[in-house]
Structures are given as structure tokens and as C-alpha cells.
Amino acid sequence: MSIVSNSISSDAALPLAAQRKRRKLRLRKVTFPQLYITASLVYLLFLLVSAITPQLLTHYSPTAMNASELLQSPSLQHWLGTDHFGRDLWTVLVYGSRQSLLLGVVSVLIGGIAGLLLGLVAGYFGGIVDTLLMRLTDILMTIPGTLLAIVIAVAIGPTFFNVILAISISTIPSKARVIRSTVISLRSRMYVDAAKAIGTSHLQIMLRHILPGCWSPLLVMTTIGVGTSILAGTGLSFLGLGVIKEIPDWGYLLSEGRSYMTVAWWIAAFPGLFITLLVVAFNLLGDELRDRLDPKK
Amino acid sequence: MKLSKRSYQSVILILIAIMLVLAGCGNSSSSSGSSADTNSADAGTPTAGGELVWALAGVVTNDILDAHRTGFAPSTRVMRSIYDSLVVELPDHTFGPWLAESWSLSDDKKSYTFKLRQDVKFHDGTPFNAEAVKFNFDRAVDPATQSYLGKNALGPYVSTDVIDEYTVKVNFSSTFAPFLSNVAKVDLGIVSPAAVKKYGETFPQNPVGTGPFKLGKVVPGTELDLVRNEDYNWAPSGSKHQGPAYLEKLTIKYVAEDATRLSVLQSGQADVADIIPPQNLLALRADSGFNVQETELLQHNYSYYFNQNKEPWNDINVRKAVRAAIDLDSAIKTVYLGTAKQAWSPLSPHSLYYTSTVENTWKYDPDFANKTLDELGWVKGDDGIRVKDGKRLSMEFLDAQGNREKRLDLLAVVTQQLKQVGIELKLLTLPAGTVSERSLKGEYDFAGSSQFYGDPSILRQMYSTKGPSGVNNVARTSDPALEDLLEQANAELDSSKRQELYKKIQEYIIENVYSIPTYVLDYTVASSKKVHDITFDSPAWPVFYDAWIKQ
């Protein structure tokens, strides 16, 4: 929908006949994939706005508890109803998006950088370094990611940073693996040999000649990874291993709402929906990125 | 990671399915029935036989079915059916015979002599006698048993003398008022000496008592079956019948998850479920298909404590200000949806030693809180939190138990209320080991705790350096005047004098804000209409001896 209306306004300067013609063309061009990519972008934009300036999207306070408005079903006043403290659920979700997004983005950045370094070094040098590093990731890989995150969160205690750390660590192995295989295919290229021949240092080769080739797989992985990381983070909160803040994150809200399912389904349903949409959106975008960055196409 | 086009479609289909399921849940909830009498109505003559399935709120790890060893509430609830006690505490707080036919106090009031029943056998066929009682009490105080509640329950225990086959004399070094109440609890339930010797370290997995039910099949982490003890003929006084229990089998399924426990009950997979969360309690009370029994748990009510070893909580004025800043009435109404009352004393209102003189002795008064803190030099900083000499008025609260009884929800409301007057409360969720370590070191400001215990001597544990927790009592209270009262009350055998002492003690605790009592807990049991006559022991655990199922 938004594509269509945007195109009309931007084409306002064109003569009417031409406009109509273009509009027809555009309409035909709007395919299912474009629609869901746009929808994903719109949803993420909405989350970005709510994470940065939540007060634009609601006039309620996320911490105002109201004993006279407990467990109210969705209404015009409270779009998504109220929770078990009488807080406006929409407001709590909007304010809670900051923590979820922050967790996803930061943990993906940490995991991505660590995975990149590991993969780069292992793939470039090969031999004993490769063997050692890859066996290390093998060990990490034998433990399922979520379980690893749970173990770390339990062992070092659930502060926000620890949760991020736990999730980052659990995502390192897969990233390191992919980067390593990319690096291996790159390091045998002619231009790398040429660089070696003129005496360029290892560091220079890695940074100048190999790293650029790793960006596109890394970008795809991190985009999809944001969704998975947020899911892992909400999962930890759900299990009671997250950080309980004044403004609950989505996972904690979902977990709290679960016990109210039979009397107030909306407390669990909407955080669940927000999380699902977020993960789907990031996955769709990641997939689209992969298609676009694929050199074979 | 890669999703094909087809998987998108399936994702969307799954989403739609989830929405439909959710919509379904919404509908079913609103249709719960009309008002009904929730008390067990006259149901006619009991019929023997049948299996009762109990969805237990909690998980009994099967290594803790040792009466003397565990204080873990879910285990205690299960063990009540396996182990009998020497005496029974009746609802009016008098004591009746059970495994002991009669008892008497010595002239110096330091020894109890019990005449035992002569027809009692353990589940393993060995006889119950004076030697068995001696074995049990000696075992409870033996450090090797690692008993906590059982050992405390015996207080100044010295020894047990076997007078003859069915007479024992239990000796204490001083008069010990809580003894009969304590000996009536499962913590001092009678275990089989032969079984303890036979199983040794594995006895907790192979519990043998004299109770109306004995251990059947155990599926670790999932369920536990108790089967009827056919020889049983020594029911406590106050029971509605004699002989074996009516139920052939009691299947206990561990369903720790609130919502699941409810649906297991409502779908008929279980006949009984306990600890019903407030939001469902309201619906169940109104549902004609179920009986709801609510019994006040005799205990030290869940209370907030200040760590008085730390500044500024050693100042009574600060403690008073914090208490005045908390609107407990509104917080409890919000969190428990009107199903729980506000507590005014550390003791449960149904306790024989409760005093109503502490009721309404303080109130929610944010102006008083603000004024007091202003006068003490705590000024609001830029973020709204008060500061004095560069130190923020901030409290750390350690938690390892999660949202049990909605305590974290209560704390969330309290946090907001405290913020209004410029006090910050920070909840730290930590692993249980870290919490007890930090608690021992005194690295906390504010704490919450409850302790189920029928006898008021629990106050000695919570507020005295002479109690079992010693200088590590949770409020770090060290007040000689209070300790003196607590020692007196612990030794006072005259009930009315003891009541007078505990009245003073409760008033003293509230006056000095050594704790802030929060809510009164009702232990709730919901059962299907065909189940009758579930009764409760002291402090409030369910007894299935008289229970029967209408065929």
C-alpha cells in the first residue's frame, strides 16, 4: 500500500496521462516479495522510533500502575488492553522495544566481530592455528546455542551485559565457520598471491584484500542474527534468567502473561506477536539481502 | 537459517494458527460458570476405593522425602501422608493423641513422658515402639543427618530415655514451650529405624513411615504414587473415621507451572490442584464444577526486612519513613486481586498468639515519609532519588526464588511507590548460591522472607541473635530487650502468659520496624466436585486420610 501512495505523490509533477501509465506499471510491479520486504521495513522503522522516542507513540507512562484498571481487555482507550499492574500494554511494549533491540543489535555486533576475527585468522593462516581455533568452535557448537546462553547466564548472573555476552558467545561458532570458509576461498585468489609476492604484510592482506570479501556473508548473517538474538534474549527472560527492569522486556512480559492466559490472553499474546513479527521481519530482510548480494545472480 | 518461499507461507500459517488458539482461549475463559457454594456440602456416606490425582505446585526431587532432613514445602506436603507424628495439633490449637496415647510433663517441666500406642507398625512391618521414638529424636539432632527444621524443632533437646517398650521420656535442658506444636509437624514425623539402617544414605528415596499411605512407584521429576497402607488403624484424634484410608491410591503429579496446573485440573486430568494463583482463584470460586478450600497457612508472614547492619537502615526514622512510603493496601489489592489480606503482624491472624493490637498501627503516609527524609538531610537529586553526603538512598534486594506467590509483582508495585518519595529499590536476580553467600556476608539492604511454622517461636529465629539463625537473622536485629522477651516466651509453658509475652513481642517488632509484614497467605486447594473431605494439618498442609471420591 505505502509503495503505491508514495509513488503517486512523488510523481505529482508528471502529466496526468503519464502518471496513470506509470501507476499501472508500478501496480503490476508490486509483487508479494516486495510487499513483505516493505512491511518488514515499516515494522522495523516503527520499532526504531519506539526505541528512540517512545513518548511519540503513546501518552501513557510505562511505569504508572493503576489498581482500578487491572486486566482490561483491548479497547479504544487501551488499544492492547492493560496488564496485571493496570499498565497500558501498548505503552509497555513500545517502551520495552528499546531493551529488545539493544540486546539484539549489540549482541550481534559483539558476536559478529568475534566470529569475524576468529574466522579470518583461522581461514587465512590455516594449519595448526586453523585446527586449534576450529576445534574450539567445534566444542562450542556441540552445546546448543540457547543452552549455552542459559549456562552462561546462570553461571555469571543475569545482568543486561551478561545476557548480551551469553548470547554473543553462543553465536560466535556459526559466524566463525562461515567467515573461515569464505576466507579460504579468497586466500587462493590470484590477487592475494600477487599481494603476497610484492611483500605485503599478513595484516595488510587480511584487511585490504580478504576482509572486503567477507562483508556480504557477514551482513546477511548479522541481519538474520539480530532476530535470533532477540529471540534468545526474550527466551532467557521468559525462563526467568533475564534482567527484570522497571519496564519489562517482551520476553518477561510474555512469561508473566502466560499465567494469565485464561483470564487475560492479551498480556501474553501481544508480546508474542511483537517478537514473532520482529524475528520474521529480520529473517525476511536477511534473506532479501542474501539474494541481492549473491554474486552468482 | 535460510528460509525458502514455501517456509514463509508456513510461517504465516503457523501465525494464523496461533492467533486462532489464542482467540479460543479468550472465549473459553469468559464462560466460566455461575456462583456456587464453594464449601464442601453434605455429600453422603464416604465410599472407599479409587485413585485421586493431585497436581502438586512444585517438584519433589525424590531425594528429599526424609522427614527430618527437608524443609522444602512441596516435599513436606507429600510427606504428611507418609509419616505420622506423636501428637496432632487440632484446629483449636489443642493437642490430641496420635502415635502417643497420652503424655505428661515432669515436675521440673523439662521432660515429657509419652505413652505410645501398642498396635502400630511401620510400612516395612517392623513395630513402632519406644526405641523407635528415641532413634527418631536422636537422629534429628545428629549433625550427620543434616537436619535443619527437625533439629530446630527440638530446641534444647538433651536425650530420650526408654522407660519400657511403649513409654519414652524426652528430656530438655530448659523448659521448651514449642515442643508439642513442633512434634505434631512432619519435620519430626516418625521414620522407621530399620529402614534408615537398611537404606542408609538412600533412605530419602525410600521413605518408610507409619502413615496412611506408603510410597509406590516413583517417576523422578514427574510423579510419585502413594498407595494405601492396608494395616493402618491409628488415625489421629479429630479424624472422621478409623482404619485404612478410603483412597486406594494417591497419584501426585508435579505441575509447577500455574497455568498448566489449572488446565490439568479443569480438563479432568487431575482431581485436585493446590496453590491456585489469584486470577484463577476468582474464576474457580465461581465455578460450580469445583470446590475451593482456602486455609490460612500458619507462618511468619512474608515480610520485608532492613539490613540493620548497614547505614542508613539502622536508623529507626528511616525505616519508619520507608514503611510510610509503601501503600501495601493498594499493592496487595493490585497484585492479589482482592484474594489476600494485608498482614499487620509477623504472625498469621489464626495463630493462637496473634495480637490484633498491632493492626492499623501504621499507615500509608507519603507526606510523613517525605518530611522525615527531608529532615534527616536526604535531599532529592536530579533523577528524583534522594542523596545525602553523596550517597544515594538506594536499596538492593536480592532474589533467587522468582515470582513465587507473586512476590516479585508485589515488589514491582512497591518499587514504584518508593520511587515517589525518592527511594530507589533495585532488584537483583541471582543464582541461589550467590544470594545465600551475599546474605551471609550482609551484602543487601532490603530482603523478603516467610517461614511456615505453627508455633510463634519462629520469631526467635527471625529476630534474635540467640535463635537458630543467630547473628545472621535476616533483619540483623540485635536488641537485648527483644531477645529477653523471646527467651522468656520460648520457655513459658502457661498459654495465657505466653500469649501476653508474644503480644508484647509483636508490638515491639512493629514499633521498631524490625520488619514490615506484607500479606496473609491462604493455602488453596481446588478439587473437582466428586472429591470430598480433604482436611488440613497444622500449619496448613493437606491431609488425604479422610478424603474420598464419590463413585
TrEMBL record, chain A:
A family per Pfam: BPD_transp_1
One GO term describing the cellular component: plasma membrane
Keywords assigned by UniProt, alphabetized: Cell membrane, Membrane, Transmembrane, Transmembrane helix, Transport
InterPro entries linked: BP-dependent_transpt_permease, MetI-like, MetI-like_sf
Keyword NADP applies: no
Compartments where found: Cell membrane
Domain (ABC transmembrane type-1) ranges: 97-286
Membrane topology term: Multi-pass membrane protein
Biological process annotations from GO: transmembrane transport
TM helices/strands, residue ranges: 35-57, 101-125, 145-167, 218-244, 264-286
Membership in a protein family: Belongs to the binding-protein-dependent transport system permease family.
The protein, known as: Peptide/nickel transport system permease protein
UniProtKB/TrEMBL annotation, chain B:
Cellular component terms (Gene Ontology): ATP-binding cassette (ABC) transporter complex; periplasmic space
Gene3D superfamilies: Dipeptide-binding Protein, Domain 1 (3.90.76.10), Dipeptide-binding Protein, Domain 3 (3.10.105.10), Periplasmic binding protein-like II (3.40.190.10)
Ranges where the Solute-binding protein family domain occurs: 95-469
An annotated GO BP: peptide transport
Coiled-coil region: none
Xref: Pfam families: SBP_bac_5
GO molecular function: peptide transmembrane transporter activity
Keywords: Signal, Transport
Protein name (Swiss-Prot/TrEMBL): Peptide/nickel transport system substrate-binding protein
